[in-house]
Automatic annotation (TrEMBL), chain A:
It comes from Planomonospora alba. CDD domains: TM_PBP1_transp_AraH_like (cd06579). Keywords: Cell membrane, Membrane, Transmembrane, Transmembrane helix. It is found in: Cell membrane. It comes from the Bacteria. This is ABC transporter permease.
UniProtKB/TrEMBL annotation, chain B:
InterPro entries: AAA+_ATPase, ABC_carbohydrate_import_ATPase, ABC_transporter-like_ATP-bd, ABC_transporter-like_CS, P-loop_NTPase. Gene3D superfamilies: P-loop containing nucleotide triphosphate hydrolases (3.40.50.300). This is Sugar ABC transporter ATP-binding protein. It comes from Planomonospora alba. One of its GO terms (molecular function) is ATP binding. Residues 8-244, 248-505 form the ABC transporter domain. Keywords: ATP-binding, Nucleotide-binding, Repeat, Transport. Signal peptide: none annotated. Pfam families: ABC_tran.
UniProtKB/TrEMBL annotation, chain C:
The keyword Transport applies. It is a multi-pass membrane protein. It is found in: Cell membrane. The chain crosses the membrane at residues 23-46, 52-70, 128-146, 166-186, 215-234, 246-265. CDD domains: TM_PBP1_transp_AraH_like. It comes from the Bacteria. Its main location: membrane. This is ABC transporter permease. Keywords: Cell inner membrane, Cell membrane, Membrane, Transmembrane, Transmembrane helix, Transport.
Length: 334, 507, 318
């Protein structure tokens, strides 16, 4: 067998190249590294940046985005996308303010239940009909916004939060830290356990990585997909409710375009839109990073807040380009 | 017959698809603790049989029995739960997840509060995989391992899940020799534990190394079952290819005409084509007006050679010349401009644009030539399309019919037309008559002959020995990515090709 | 004869589905039009017609570019932000006259498109992420260039938005001309044919020697330029540059028009007239609900249902 022995024999185990390793490090911790660098730069540049009050503001203001981004991380890791969260956030806020007439429980339960149901329906359509998540949740975006507008007489009515206890959830602080941030931390802890330490989480990764293989390995694909969109809807509704509590009213114009900020936070956090990889730590770092960028730009005199969008966009592009280059994978032009 | 009762068997299984009988009353029995080779060329029915065994397809007639009981698995998952696992050529695991997570997905060891105990999982994974010779960190993503190691993880997963029957589909196609040894050691362990293996491969040496018995399928029928050790290698090849070595010298059924002996200088020269794991220094030359056959079993590097010449497969080294001029490597566009056209093997994935009309498919490559200032001349297109539809006798409702709706033979003619419209010097045909009906096959063969007679240099890849022998002036035989022999003149016989494929002249 | 009945029933159903996929959007437009002609007072008045067409024109223009991008199995989320950017650029360069300002605006659109195209075709980023980054960044850039709404009185620009030639508003005439040009591009040019082939089977296109990267890049540039044209027209109609809100959600309207018009998201086909009809259907729907004093929220919910129905119907073919 001359041909056999003549074959080139490459090393049997391929050690990761330094480029691969750098790529993985960047993907996992890039957002965190940049976040730390920005915090350091902010401390140097502005006296008013590293005050407890300012940092607390950033934390509280980022909480709502972060809560929605936690749900979005599950969706994106599973290989899907959810465009409806911005509308559900607004709907959740209106429903919370409306529900607060009937007590704290109603103020919390109504938005969570309705938005959860909305997510559930989207999940069922996506999992059962195999229509593209992009289109189904695009319809969901319009539908949820329509529902919210019809509840508020086309946005003319603004419901005020009439329950003190409920308002306290959004406005109160504990040891100087805003309640919304604490709620976010609790959700983050629960979600991290769910994603990393349970069979459900493993299944989410498996579906996003290779749906056919996952099905062959015994993953209940339909059920997991439905659950993921249900969670995303629930969390968007909850974030909306918390925001209503903070603002003492259900503001109807909120949430427009929020889905894109959320997706940006998740992608900046190192979760790939192709699914199967990523994590919650990066997502939170991504959400906080967007908050810090906004805050820093507000500190610079003469820079309008729209500069924040430019920076976010450039940053998002830089993240995906760097990742593409470092991963060294070029599957053609797809 | 196996000594023990069969653990998995099919009894007269029939499976038909529109136009083809993929399995024609096939009976197959796998004994306990047996390694059973399943062989056959493309379209023989191997993969259909595997799919029937694992619940992907339901047989139209006949029965599947597992441990003596009739079964009808609704899905591969059901079959797996019953203990029948398939290790595919393309590893069916999740590349982004860690090795350990892949190994234990769905069966993760639990710790306190029912949460996954990763420490225990990693330790167990390391221990299990050590047994298969895998020593890399189990926290690494599976996709960062070599394909051999990935396949070993898939095997380990199946065995951990207590599989009784493991079906291996071309398991060694991407393995290093050392990895092959490990795989065979693992197979020996399986055997010792009384588990059974169905082993699908085209590599004859491997079959003789690990398999106890062999079943040969051809054209959906079982043509042979028996102990492998008693079967001569040449006899096995002849069974697979359907040519009896004793009576090869019959008059052919193909539509190829008589031999020509062109003496002009070669128009195509390819030298030292090399690509890791795939091609190992393939060289060949084709003269104008000559049909050169490229033979070899599946996976021997035939298609890769054609793709490399056409600029569609990046090479580690090697050169391609047309008319003495070097063709820049790795560029399809440059190859086309040099006059090389490739009719790819996978008609659906790489050839036809199914949603477009016959007309658009025919002129796809030639569009820039049929346009002035970027505006397509519909009259020119109509002329070209009409000429080729007539010349190639393409049967379609009209030029406007969607190409995806045509029969396989007519799709192939459309692709031929696409390349002929480019007026090439060299035509690389990868399995031009596979999967098309008899009539269309004869027409395509006659056409290839006519093109060569017109001065075109043709490289013909075919698994059909008859086609190779009757169509080609010379035949280059590949084995394991290298040229195993070149036959010309009176040596171009099915017997000699089979001998070269089987590796009998250098043993 | 009885034996053939079930077969024919199945055939009829398949044919009905195919017909619906092909002509459903035309039928819906005709039906809604007929409904309005009968039940909506003054619907057939020329004034109303003109208003509807002027309103839908920018959406149609953006949707043309979107249809081309979707035909290559891509998506362009940046179109709304490109419109906003053109509003800013027009305001910034209006001092040099209307034509230089418009030229700069179109150039800006082409540049954004080239950036998106390069990310997709050269770097290999998914179209949705690449154009999402542009959506966020370019809108910000537009606001940085022009922090607040700025009104203008440049007669050329004002005329572009409000005048009519032979009774046809210039805005509508431009849209009609662009529809014809894009239809010509798709049907009659090498570029258009290659674009559709690349969306239909990228591997086969590459093996056939098509310039895949160049075509993809050009498609995104075209989408950017068309969005810029829409931005210029919308700005001239407003008689003010409004980068904060101009083109908001335009990407969603355009994707809706394309999808409802029967262009599959999986690429390989571009339906130019279908896209126009998709945009018209959404416009008519909105007008109908408004004229009958139904709340605007109904429009969005109805749009959601139409999108789902259109994609569900198109799904059956595969």
């Amino acid at each position: 067998m001359t041909a056999q022995t003549a074959r080139p024999a490459p090393p049997a185990t391929t050690a990761p190249t330094s480029r691969e390793r750098a790529g993985r490090l960047f993907q996992r911790h890039g957002a965190l590294i940049v976040l730390c660098a920005l915090l350091a730069a902010g401390t140097f540049a502005f006296d008013s940046f590293t005050t407890p009050a300012n940092l607390g503001n950033i934390a509280t203001a980022s909480s709502f985005l972060a809560i929605i981004a936690i749900g979005m991380t599950f969706v994106i890791v599973s290989g899907g996308i959810d465009l409806s969260v911005g509308s559900l956030f607004a709907l959740g806020g209106v429903l919370a303010a409306y529900g607060s007439r009937h007590g704290t429980l109603a103020a919390l339960a109504l938005p969570v239940a309705v938005c959860g149901l909305f997510g559930l329906v989207q999940g069922v359509i996506i999992a059962r009909t195999r229509m593209a998540p992009f289109i189904v949740t695009l319809a969901g975006l319009l539908g949820a916004r329509g529902l919210m507008l019809s509840l508020t007489d086309e946005g003319a009515t603004t419901y005020l939060v009439e329950d003190e206890a409920f308002a306290a959830i959004g406005q109160g602080t504990l040891a100087g830290v805003g309640h919304p941030f604490l709620v976010m931390l609790v959700i983050l802890a629960a979600a991290a356990v769910l994603l990393q330490r349970t069979g459900f989480g493993q299944n989410v990764y498996a579906i996003g990585g290779n749906e056919d293989a996952a099905a062959l390995m015994g993953v209940p694909v339909t059920r997991i997909k439905i659950m993921v969109y249900l969670m995303s809807g629930l969390l968007a509704g909850l974030a909306g409710a918390l925001n209503a509590a903070r603002l003492s009213s259900g503001v109807t114009i909120l949430g427009i375009g929020l889905e894109l900020d959320v997706i940006a936070a998740v992608v900046i956090g190192g979760t790939l839109l192709t699914g199967g990889a990523g994590g919650l730590g990066g997502t939170i770092a991504g959400a906080l990073l967007l908050g810090v960028i906004q805050n820093l730009i507000n500190q610079i005199p003469g820079l309008s807040s729209s500069f924040q969008q430019v920076v976010s966009g450039v940053f998002l592009a830089a993240v995906v380009i760097t990742h593409r280059i470092l991963s060294g994978v070029r599957h053609g032009t797809t | 017959m196996p000594v023990t009762a069969p653990v998995l068997e099919t009894d007269g299984v029939l499976k038909a698809f529109p136009g083809v009988t993929a399995l024609d009353r096939v009976s197959f029995a796998l004994g306990q603790g047996e390694v059973h080779a399943l062989v056959g060329e493309n379209g023989a029915g191997k993969s259909t049989l595997i799919k029937v065994l694992t619940g992907v397809y339901r047989p139209d007639a006949g029965q599947v029995r597992y441990r003596g009981e009739p079964v009808a698995f609704g899905s591969p998952l059901e079959a797996q739960r019953a203990g029948i696992t398939t290790i595919y050529q393309e590893v069916n695991l999740v590349p982004q997840m860690s090795v350990a997570r892949n190994l234990f997905l769905g069966r993760e060891p639990r710790g306190r509060l029912g949460l996954i105990d990763f420490t225990a999982m990693r330790e167990r994974a390391s221990r299990v995989l050590h047994g298969y010779g895998i020593r890399s960190d189990v926290r690494r993503p599976l996709g960062s391992l070599g394909l051999g190691a990935q396949q070993m993880v898939a095997l380990a997963r199946a065995i951990e899940a207590d599989a009784q029957v493991v079906i291996m589909d071309e398991p060694t196609s991407s393995l290093q020799p050392r990895e092959v040894d490990r795989l065979f050691a693992a197979i020996a362990d399986l055997k010792a534990q009384g588990r059974s293996v169905v082993y699908v491969s085209h590599r004859l040496e491997e079959l003789y190394r690990v398999c106890d018995r062999v079943t040969v399928l051809r054209d959906g029928r079982r043509v042979h079952t028996g102990p492998l050790a008693e079967l001569e290698r040449l006899r096995l090849v002849s069974l697979m290819l359907g040519r009896d070595p004793d009576q090869v010298r019959t008059e052919g059924l193909t539509r190829f005409g008589g031999r020509r002996r062109p003496h002009a200088a070669p128009v195509l020269r390819a030298g030292g084509l090399r690509r890791e794991h795939v091609l190992d220094g393939v060289s060949l030359a084709v003269r104008p007006g000559e049909i050169v056959g490229l033979g070899g079993l599946l996976g021997s590097g035939r298609s890769e050679t054609a793709k490399a010449i056409a600029g569609a497969l990046p090479l580690d080294s090697g050169r391609v010349e047309v008319d003495g001029e070097p063709v820049p490597a790795g560029s399809v566009d440059a190859a086309i401009r040099a006059g090389i056209s490739l009719l790819p093997e996978d008609r659906k994935a790489e050839g036809i644009v199914p949603g477009l009309s016959v007309r658009e498919n025919i002129v796809l490559a030639a569009l820039p030539r049929l346009a002035r200032a970027g505006i397509v001349s519909e009259a020119d297109v109509d002329r070209v399309v009409a000429a080729f539809m007539r010349r190639l006798r393409i049967k379609a409702a009209g030029p406007g019919q969607r190409a995806g709706e045509l029969s396989g033979g007519n799709q192939q003619k459309v692709l031929l037309a696409r390349w002929l419209a480019m007026d090439p010097k060299v035509l690389l045909l990868d399995e031009p008559t596979r999967g098309i009906d008899v009539g269309a096959k004869a027409e395509v063969q006659a056409l290839i002959d006519e093109l060569a007679a017109g001065g075109l240099a043709v490289l013909l890849i075919s698994s059909d020995l008859e086609e190779l022998v009757e169509g080609s002036e010379r035949v280059v035989v590949l084995r394991d990515g290298a040229v195993a022999g070149e036959l010309s003149g009176p040596d171009v016989t099915e017997e000699k090709i089979m001998a070269a494929i089987a590796g009998e002249n250098d043993d | 004869m009885t034996e053939t009945v079930p077969a024919r029933g199945a055939l009829d159903r398949a044919r009905a589905v195919a017909w619906l996929q092909e002509y459903g959007v035309y039928a819906a437009v005709v039906a809604l039009f007929a409904f309005n002609a009968v039940f909506t007072p003054h619907f057939l008045a020329a004034d109303n017609f003109r208003t509807q067409l002027v309103q839908v024109a920018p959406i149609v223009i953006v949707s043309l570019g979107m249809a081309l991008v979707i035909g290559t199995e891509g998506i362009d989320l940046s179109v709304g932000s490109v419109m906003a950017l053109t509003a800013s650029v027009v305001a910034l360069y209006l001092g040099y006259g209307a034509l230089p300002a418009i030229a700069m605006a179109l150039l800006a659109g082409a540049l954004v498109g080239a950036a998106g195209g390069a990310l997709v075709a050269v770097v290999g980023v998914q179209p949705i992420v690449a154009t999402l980054a542009l959506l966020v960044g370019v809108r910000g850039l537009a606001n940085v260039f022009l922090p607040q709404l700025r009104e203008f009185t440049n007669p050329t620009l004002v005329a572009l938005g409000s005048e009519a030639v032979a009774g046809v508003p210039i805005v509508v005439a431009v849209a009609a001309a662009l529809v014809a040009a894009v239809a010509f591009l798709v049907r009659r040019t090498t570029f258009g044919r290659q674009l559709v082939a690349i969306g239909g089977n990228r591997a086969a296109s590459r093996l056939s020697g098509l310039p895949v990267r160049r075509v993809l890049l050009a498609v995104y540039v075209l989408s950017g330029v068309l969005a810029a044209v829409a931005g210029v027209l919308a700005t001239s109609r407003l008689q003010a540059s409004d980068p904060t809100s101009l083109g908001l959600f335009m990407e969603l309207s355009a994707i809706t028009a394309v999808v409802v018009g029967g262009t599959p998201l999986s690429g390989g086909r571009v339906r130019v007239l279908g896209t126009v009809m998709g945009a018209l259907l959404m416009q008519l729907l909105q007008a109908t609900l408004i004229k009958h004093d139904l709340p605007q929220s109904w429009t969005q919910m109805a749009q959601a249902v139409i999108i789902l129905a259109a994609v569900y119907a198109a799904r059956e073919r595969r």
